[in-house]
Amino acid sequence: MSQSSIPVASQRSGGSGNVEEGRVFINGRVAIGSTDDDFVCATLDWWPPDKCDYGTCSWGRASLLNLDLTNKILFNAIKAFSSLKIRMGGTLQDKVIYQRTGDQQPCAQFVKNSSEMFGFSEGCLPMSRWDELNQFFRDAGAVVIFGLNALSGRSIGMDGLATGAWNGSDAESLIQYTVNKGYTIHGWELGNELTGNGVGAGVPADQYASDINTLQSMVQKIYASYEAKPLVIGPGGFFDASWYTEFIDKTLKSLQVVTHHIYNLGPGVDDHLIDKILDPSYLDGGSKPFQDLQSILQNSATSATAWVGEAGGAYNSGHNLVTNAFAFSFWYLDQLGMASSYGNKTYCRQTLIGGNYGLLNTTTFVPNPDYYSALLWHRLMGRNVLSTSFNGTKKIRAYSHCSKQSPGITLLLINLDGNTTLRVQVSTENDGNNRTSTLQSKNQTQRSNFASTREEYHLTAKDGNLHSQTLLLNGKVLTVNSSGSIPPLEPISVSSLDPITVAPFSVVFARFPDSSIPVASQRSGGSGNVEEGSVFINGRVAIGSTDDDFICATLDWWPPDKCDYGTCSWGRASLLNLDLSNKILLNAIKAFSPLKVRMAEPFNNYWAVVIFGLNALSGRTIGLDGLAAGAWNSSDAESLIRYSANKGYTIHGWELGNELTGNGVGAGVPADQYASDINTLQSMVQKIYAGFEVKPLVLGPGGFFDASWYTEFIDKTLKSLQVVTHHIYNLGPGVDDHLIDKILDPSYLDGGSKPFQDLQSILQTSATSATAWVGEAGGAYNSGHNLVTNAFAFSFWYLDQLGMASSYDTKTYCRQTLIGGNYGLLNTTTFVPNPDYYSALLWHRLMGRNVLSTSFYGTRKIRAYAHCSKQSPGITLLLINLDGNTTVQVQVSTENAGNRTSTLQDTDKTQRSNFSRMRRVSKIDASVREEYHLTAKDGDLHSQTLLLNGKVLTINSSRIVPPLEPIRVSSMDPVIVAPFSIVFVRFPNINYPACKYK
């Protein structure tokens, strides 16, 4: 990043002309809308090379049927978005038939025929081409929407009205083939521009609604065994208020996305396109369909959201050197800003390639200016949309969003004036009594160079020519290199003391990374409410203690063809086939130093503490009632244990059996017999390890807690059992669609304390010296639930379980699984850490052995736990906010040995500290604490991407787990817990009797 604080140096375009002043006002108190994370979308069409408009044939080989999928620029252009939505569809989609397996007829291509609707015959999609397209999109990381032929089975009258119901058999065949091949389709859209009178043909709203209901039923049936099903999308037409109102009201339960098309500049042959683009009043007129559709959706009982399904601006393939040149970025970016302001979740540009409006050149594949405009929007403009107004010339268009995956806000400024430079001041309104502040003047008081700069991206045309297809970013030409790679889009760094200088005919993205407006600073949930609360920590005595390596994870035996509810989530994650050479796996375990791993003998060299579960059904007979009768045959286990000892393998513990307590899962063993078998195992361990000073633990029974069964079992193993293990799947089956509701319900979470409490009571009243472990906890049985138990949402349940278990003196907590199923700490396929991995690692590094009594006073949606800090002075507090709409400001109070109660914030008021909220400091002193804020990417509870203090956590190219760095915060301030967030807070200077540290 280059540095610049000289206004004229940041203009990069335009002549001298006039200079005017202006002011942007951004209201940061509440978002006015939100978009999908992959808001930017592009289309691919069906038009063959001989599609011509006004004597110009602009499509070349850009059709879905003939596009060169081996082109490196094309691949890199899509991949640069990570991910780009791609809609496959267009006018001819309603004339496409899909090849079926066993078809004897040749798969004919489109043939030009002026007597046919749209000027072409029907065309056929070969399944070989469908395979190629899906493979390409998967490799490029695209999110795919496919437009189905909605005219199949209908008759088109002389008046253009298409009568009769949709014949979905051809579509059903394609969808079934797609599922069988394992291709991922994000959404199936029915029809193209058949709304109202239609283009070529029209379908009445009530009939179209009936057809959408048919499509939804089809999708539900074909994807019945899939947890995540494709969206059903429609109608993909031009907005007609009465038609859309009827259509939406009759698809309340079947339609998930309402799509509409935009070509509001008129025909591509119009010589006045640039005049329209540069006319603010004309652009303002484009808001009406957005506004009207938003009103319909808000007044309807539907849950459907709005997308722009296709937008080329000028119909009939656009206009060369206008809709594929720099000038069109004014219209396109204005449309993106306007659409997002009215609640549109996705905006699909016509086209990615093809016609005269492609983001890529049809012949060379080289990006046109709008490609870079789209990519900058995608990388800079986050989901939350902010109310933005500009005071000054009407020729400035202004839009702002919370920044994408980073702190602060991003402002977009478009200057439609070719002779005037604008100097723009930026003001924001926060939630502090509606106070208005100017970002420039606000930063004058800050001492940090980081805090005194913003990032700017200035887009201008080569030589100031609006018809140019060459784009300059901060004065430098953007071009792909010889490898077809997209160039880096680097900002300039500008002093925040200066106004933003917007040159004539230019576009500026300005990112303010240090803006503290509420919507941008929360990172999760809406702006919502702000409440206060207090945490009370009793530091006089510990209420429990854990093992130093409290965190544990399991490895299982399930093979790849273990499936639940039609989903096979285990892959090669079994003890028998797991890739032990994977660097991420090695580094993920090593980061704990050590990590307890249950059932994982091969991990002695992985900085793991190993517990192995033995087969407890060996030698038994299982009756029709599921009762396993007879004594355990230990010979096979004895052979394995002796082999392990002879090889010098260090096993921390041998556990007997899995889920055989009570009635068991599959089979059950009576408590007295199980106790006898544990005694046998202990004798065996004592004999085999007779020459060892430290012997492995004997653990059991590894089942679901049953008070009477466990009481008998413990009483009969007083001298042989060292660890009592129990399993937790208290959320029910993984297929349950209400898992997140349970996770976010404090009463439901509270109910999870009973087995901990009851087992603790049994152990305390028994003569045993055994301690309690959670031997396996996946939360939701049958492999969990994809995008819930392996996503951010599950950290609420998991961390709450860790806090609760340790409060009841549980020494170790084993998460099901380290890898495998839909509840792994690591992704089953890529090994990349899921959010709970980092949650576990932070607990392991911050939360010490001694557990402190902790109470929260305020909303029930806050969960609070505290421990003495891990291998360092002080205490660490864990706060979990289950509320997606409330920020909680938490004061922390403690009680010390002298029964004196103090507020940590009040104590620090006497200290001379210059540190402000959320500002990094160079060293820890008595006036600061360390905070670790965990949030989901874009506030999405289903996200598998975790942010720590606003920054994405990801492994690097060397497969190393990233450092987990805190922010240092003034101890005079309350702890700010954003909606749907988790905060670890370490107070390094709090010393209490329960937390002796040497």
Automatic annotation (TrEMBL):
Signal peptide coordinates: none
Listed Polar residues bias regions: 429-452
InterPro entries: GH (IPR017853), Glyco_hydro_79 (IPR005199)
Domain of life: Eukaryota
Localization (cell): Lysosome membrane; Secreted
GO cellular component, one term: lysosomal membrane
SUPFAM superfamilies: (Trans)glycosidases
Key words, A-Z: Glycoprotein, Hydrolase, Lysosome, Membrane, Secreted, Signal
Recorded GO MF terms: beta-glucuronidase activity
Pfam families named in the record: Glyco_hydro_79n (PF03662)
Chain intervals for the UniProt region annotation (Disordered): 429-453
Membrane topology: Peripheral membrane protein
Family per record: Belongs to the glycosyl hydrolase 79 family.
Function: Endoglycosidase which is a cell surface and extracellular matrix-degrading enzyme. Cleaves heparan sulfate proteoglycans (HSPGs) into heparan sulfate side chains and core proteoglycans.
Protein name as catalogued: Heparanase-like protein 3
Organism: Vitis vinifera (Grape)
